Please model this.
Amino acid sequence: MRLGLDLSGGDFAPRAALEGALAARCELPDDVEIVLIGDASTTRNLLVDYGADSTQFSLVHAPEIIGMDEQPARAFKLKHQSSIHVGFALLKSGQIDVFASAGNTGAMMAGSMLSIHPIEGVIRPSIGTCIPRPDGGINLILDVGINSDCKADVLYQFGILGSLYSQHVLNVARPRVGLLNIGEEEEKGNLISKAAHELMKDSSDFHFIGNIEGRDIFTDKADVIVCDGFTGNVVLKEAEAFYTLLKSRGINDDYFDRFNYELYGGTAVLGVNGNVIIGHGISGPTAIKNMLRHALEVAKSSLPEKIKKAFTV
Amino acid sequence: MRLGLDLSGGDFAPRAALEGALAARCELPDDVEIVLIGDASTTRNLLVDYGADSTQFSLVHAPEIIGMDEQPARAFKLKHQSSIHVGFALLKSGQIDVFASAGNTGAMMAGSMLSIHPIEGVIRPSIGTCIPRPDGGINLILDVGINSDCKADVLYQFGILGSLYSQHVLNVARPRVGLLNIGEEEEKGNLISKAAHELMKDSSDFHFIGNIEGRDIFTDKADVIVCDGFTGNVVLKEAEAFYTLLKSRGINDDYFDRFNYELYGGTAVLGVNGNVIIGHGISGPTAIKNMLRHALEVAKSSLPEKIKKAFTV
Model:
């Protein structure tokens, strides 16, 4: 497996990215190749700085940088030598098996849409987030911000995408898919959620268990929680706010400590022709290391192939 | 002031309601009259049971009960002798200054709409919830479930309603109104939130401070958080789930303990011609007591008159 890492992406690039890569190098199997994508001389100097063995990595030169606040699609199109553009080119040509970056999320989505493209039949690719459960399990909630307005058929497809991710990456044998709603009864909800429920209730594409409410986000009721990206983004940021409040009040707890985004490091773009992992802009070395570990899991799962198969009628 | 209390409403009625009324009687000023609305003989027997002085209360006979799972509008229309129907009749005729119930929320909304009616100009009445801040303040988030689909003009009006509640009930001198969204920038959001931002940005009806994100729900950034009832309901239930998780893990903390809904007891219906307080169905005596305390605050604020004035062009 060859894991491509954007060295120029994220608020603390390139140092946080390189430190994360060094940590991952110690933990990942030897047959896993880490491909560092960034300005070659900067990378070499940094490797010397850290006293690292540069033969442990492959280097691909990408002198341009897409800033965190740049207009994403425009920057992706114009900056051919940027780490994100080069990363997608490597992914598309099969020179890497997965591309991971903590850089400009919009540019990563632009690359996903414009370079490797959505899988045929997928209306809107999506990104989700892992939510820890007290029983040790993990719920996947999607979408969390890429698709703020979703029609019912898009939510239905999120059920398929989430189910496949839960099954093949999180190893849940038969993922239970719940629709995030404001009541358990079928007739509850807004116009979109009611229409989505109607589509989902007889689904043979995934194991639909009905509506779930905000109170069930952290429970064992569903493994996959489907919602539009507006709601999912608010849910995610509220959970992050809670975690921040707990930390600020000096509360430590085994379960709540699993809310630390650094443990997951990044999230896969679901529904595109390749393995793309997007990390948090504020990622430090630990988050980058775990993003690479997660990238390996995703790459091993052959998720795009599984999704392609599901969307082939 | 005369506070009307539904004795037949809530999962633990009538005992929880009566115990709450007894506790409130000890705490509220003598010139505040508590009007118990329920089956008269049941109420008298219970008062004897508790060894209470029945002269401390006014009793109004209402032998019928609207169950927690009954179809709300239908039950409200047909059960003229129900505690909720009688309560609204008393409110409408001015025999009580506020009507509070932990009963069927839909029936309470039906009464608000069909008996006392929305204030002229208010498109959709709303209910909000108080969210505690670490600095001791309280944020109001609205809507939290009555209006699951909201157009931009409805969200705009929630800004007015919430601002008046914050000012006159929570005593915030100049409430800052934020629009719950998935980014701080004006152009972020779904179609509705973008349209709402456009309406709000030059508002002279309230002090709009722009978009706020899920991470700001518990911060001092805005005093009033406006969103559609779908999002607000999910946010509220997620916060309740967190509180439940903290309790289940034995974590006690002064701040998080303020998430206990029992401290607030109930929430006012905003935008109708009268003071209506809706409590949680699971209310125990403490929640009922605090619902009555809150009912007194709301009644003293003359909120419907303030709202009428704001909606008079």
